[in-house]
Amino acid sequence: MVLGQGGYKFQNWAQTYGSTPELYFQPSSTEEVKEILDLARQRSKRVKVVGAGHSPSDIACTDDFMIRMDKMNRVLKIDKDKKQVTVEAGILLTQVNEVLHGSGMALSNIGAVSEVAAGGVIGTGTHNTGITHGIMSTQVVALTLMTSSGEIFECSNSMNADLFQAARLHLGSLGIVLTVTLQCKAAFNLQEVQQSSTLQEVLDNLDKHLNSSEYFRFLWFPHTEHVSVVYQDPTDKPPSSKASWFWDSFVVYYLLEFLLWISTFVPRLLPGINRFYFWLLFMGRSERVDISYKMFNFDCLFKQYVQDWAIPIEKTKEAILQLKSWLERNPQVVAHFPVEVRFAKGDDILLSPCYQRDSCYMNIIIYRPYGKDVPHQDYWSEYEKIMKRVGGRPHWAKAHTCTRKDFEKMYPAFGKFKNIREKLDPTGMFLNTYLEKVFY
């Protein structure tokens, strides 16, 4: 019999949200997962599955039962002919990446962080960039899901297809994902070319940039005109160098955190800090080559507040210029570097921010040097207003103020997802405070 632990305190990676579940479980088998759900039904408790806790929101928080799937972390099957891998939902992408590389395969696109669980990374719509690539959930070709009753569904485009289109971005609200099958490709290296530019140049030539690289993104440094353009493309060249002297320099790393901390007391220093680090890190042109998953991943630096919305790709210039104009009119507002702008292909996943449209993701951050709480609400509020005006949809893993009424307008298939959810979980076992705001 699986035993629950009392007194466990959960906190996300950014240390911005946390909770103390009544019981904390780490099942090691499907049978044990079912036991936990049976116990939850008997006691009328809710259940929340948590992965690595990287979501900077309260989507994983609960006061009832919490399940961490980290003991269900096996690679179940590698199909080299189809280039597919089937894994248990608790496995971290760090392990998946290494196993695939050893088998001559790789995921075609992953996010900035691989210390995330396979079941969770698809649950919130993790993405990277590349207008010919969808969010990570689009790489899922099959999954198995245990519902609140303990019934297990096998899902794919040919089996329980409607449920599959919901479960590929599930929010942890449909049941417990047990296994995931991911479509892969042959292992590949990426060549990254990074060059400095200006915001106006990039926005005026956005289509050209988008069509010049398979994995294009750009980084805008608020309070300046500076932009770093980043092209990443498959190459036959071998890995050539480390990322940059900066990332290996503890002196520069700690200097940045110290300067950001100082700027919390003297906000007028922030524009100069943004310009200094652009000059230090991103001025000019640089190239490097590395294994794909190592190139996709990068250091998130310090604890931080994050917002990230997907907007129609044709609204990119309008949205960024609105944000820039507002910051110029409100110089007292702190806006840390960078605003990261990425792109993703449209899809047919019911709650995907890219549902039925190619999208631009605008990611803004406020660092928390030494864990300090830094004022961010004015910045966050105006950013959300702009995103809503241009038809945006928030990243599900990030904190936002949207409610059911907003989502009903944003998502054509919201009602369909809600009906599927209520049919699978009529008692609301898999709800929490975050999800109640989403669905009710």
Structural description of this entry:
This protein is of the alpha+beta class. It folds into 3 domains: 10-68, Uridine Diphospho-n-acetylenolpyruvylglucosamine Reductase, domain 2; 75-186, Uridine Diphospho-n-acetylenolpyruvylglucosamine Reductase, domain 3 (2-Layer Sandwich), CATH 3.30.465.10; 189-394, 3-Layer(aba) Sandwich (Vanillyl-alcohol Oxidase, Chain A, domain 3). Helix content is 30%, strand content 24%. The protein contains 14 helices and 20 strands. It has helices at 30-43, 93-102, 118-123, 161-167, 199-204, 206-210, 250-263, 270-281, 292-296, 316-329, 377-389, 404-410, 414-424, 433-439, and strands at residues 10-11, 18-19, 23-25, 47-50, 65-68, 75-79, 84-88, 105-106, 140-146, 152-156, 176-183, 185-186, 189-198, 217-220, 226-235, 285-291, 304-312, 339-344, 359-367, 393-394. The chain has an 8-stranded antiparallel beta sheet. It has a 5-stranded antiparallel beta sheet with strand order 6-7-11-9-10. It has a 3-stranded parallel beta sheet with strand order 3-5-4. It starts with 9 loop residues before the first strand and ends with a helix.
Main attributes?
14 helices, 3 domains
Question: Brief overview, please?
Answer:
The protein is an alpha+beta fold. It contains 14 helices and 20 strands.
Number of spatially distinct domains: 3
Q: Into which percentage range does the β-strand content fall?
A: 15-25%
- Please state the oligomeric state of the protein chains shown: single chain
Which sheet architecture does the biggest sheet show?
A: 8 strands, antiparallel
The CATH architecture of the largest domain would be 3-Layer(aba) Sandwich
Give the end-to-end Cα distance, rounded to a whole number of Å. 35 Å
Find the CATH superfamily of the largest domain.
FAD-linked oxidases, C-terminal domain
Overall spatial form: globular
Q: Decide which structural class fits the backbone.
A: alpha+beta
Low-confidence stretches: none
- Largest sheet strand order: 16-13-15-14-18-19-17-20
User: What integer is the average pLDDT?
Assistant: 95
